[in-house]
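If your schedule permits, I should be very grateful for your opinion on a structural question. I would ask you to consider whether the tokens describe a fold that such a sequence might reasonably adopt. Thank you for your consideration; the sequence and its tokens are set out here.
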Amino acid sequence: MKFKFIHLLFCLIIFGCSNQSKLDYALNLAGENRYELEKVLKYYKIRLEDSLKYKAAVFLIENMPGHYSFVGSSIDDYCQKVNMIIDSNLEDITKKRSIIELSKTFDQKNTSKCYDIETVKGDDLIKHIDYMVDLWLNGNHASHLSFQSFCEDLLPYRAMHEIIDMNIDSLKSMFEHKLQTEYDLIDEYSHSCYWATIYVNENIKQDLGCLYDQRIAPLGRLSTLARCRWGSCIEFAVLGVHIMRSKGIPSNIDYTLEYPFRDVTHYWNSVSSRSNKRFKYITGDVMPGERHLDDDIMAKVYRISYELNVESLEMLSVEEETPDIFRDVLHIKDVTNEYVYTSDVHIQIDEKYRKGKKILYLAVFNSGQWYPIDRTRIKNNKACFKNMGREVVYLPVYYHMQKIIPCGKPFLLDAKGSITHFDALSRQIDSAILTRKYPLSERIYSYVKESVGAKIEASNDPNFSNSIVAASIDKWQITPQTIPITLKSKYKYWRYLSAPDGYCSIGDISFINESQKAIIGEIISNESQETVYRAFDNDVLTYYRSKYPSEGWIGMKFAEPVIVSKIILTPRNDDNNIRINDRYELFYWDNDTWNTLGMQTASTNKLIYNNVPAGTLLLLKDHSRGNEERIFTYKNKKQIWW
């Protein structure tokens, strides 16, 4: 079945071009599988007591077109090999590396779509509906839901495009033990899906131990997902929905396409509680109520929905090029205003920009380019975007010949909902002093601070029983820090001793002799991790971190006792500071493109640019290394990131 054909038929329904109902069209699209779906409808229609189940069946069937799984021998082979790795006696770190290497060989292009409307069996659907309606009406966690909320948050049999090869009984029995013991003993929690989610998610965290790694290719099969502790946020979000719903906990997947302040797309779960609030959680990791996405700036947040999105269908009826990211959005719901303050954005389009286009997009800047995150139809050279997140810089664009084309000036939608356009002005600022090309995140800051309180020790005893403190780290510094050593005696053993609760976290360390040359010895440590070499590999993006909070240490044993004149210490960081000898180029946005302000080779950890146009967006590129970069403005001698 061609997906485009499904789009066309349902557009006819929505726009009133046919007298047939959504249900009739779904049944027609089922082809030879129509018998299986009609069997479900007949089964419930003849029983008066099953009227709610009949309505549930109608909801599932009429919204079934467009739902599918990716199938194929490549997926079967990939999941089989992943299962073999999981079942092996290899250490976890070796299992993870093996799966990552296996992921490199997996090609999703060698798969096909298997549409639910053509393959779902009637008996399976009846069993699912019976089970879910019973959980809704008689269970402890979903009785607060209206019928519509039940259909959205609990009833659906799939989350995204996973192969559902586990029955509901198998799913319900998984990660159940704490829910059956501690939770059931506390009367106060007996009807709380908030606390039920916490208990189940603690079980997942304890039993599976989800470890997030975006390098692992999508696993595809639900049964493999439920066994593999490594995967992406999408994979674990899918697993979380199936596990929670099997226990009667109403759960969904929410996501943001592109964060407007860091280069990432992110998926997470949300649960609909009886207090009329939605709580976020990360499957096997972050519990409801724990800090996650709190006060994060987001341009758009969508919820994966089983129900067909009418607005998406309308957009698909327009015969116009569509970016890949908007080609499979039949089943999403805009929930941005559940997470952040929003405003509607009205744009007047200059006819010279439009070039006959019918759809306008709003884009945010990520990973060095503009990415569309919302779209709307153009009417009388005007466009209205609903519920846009505030404190975000947007660029209106259209899509032409597989490229994003600017269609106006970038603008800031500020915290109060006001709009300020960015435009290169004739006036100049004297200079801009730049220290980074990417904003410093709380995560990186926490790593950098871990070095405060650490010590450099020297000894001629391999056990450091008579060690001397050669230096102490009393301040944090994200750039390489030169620590002078005043000891004049020679020592054979030198080490970096962790600060309290610092986990001996370190990006790179070099011992420098009196001739100002780095001296190399044998790496020593109080643990046998194979990652100890990372502290000495001259790569700040690799790092060493001990399993001990406070007692960890790492250092070098030299062939002979040596005098160390200084130590160069680089904390674990993101390598987005200005690096000496790297080649940089600063750009400003004007006339729908980036314009250069020249290239510089950094001689210090700061760059100085003169005559930077005021009132416009800036972008700093490192041509020597790295790919993380973000737009910013410069005001009051400070880089302000967007």
Q: What stands out?
A: The longest helix spans residues 122-138. The CA atoms of residues 422 and 616 lie 5 Å apart.
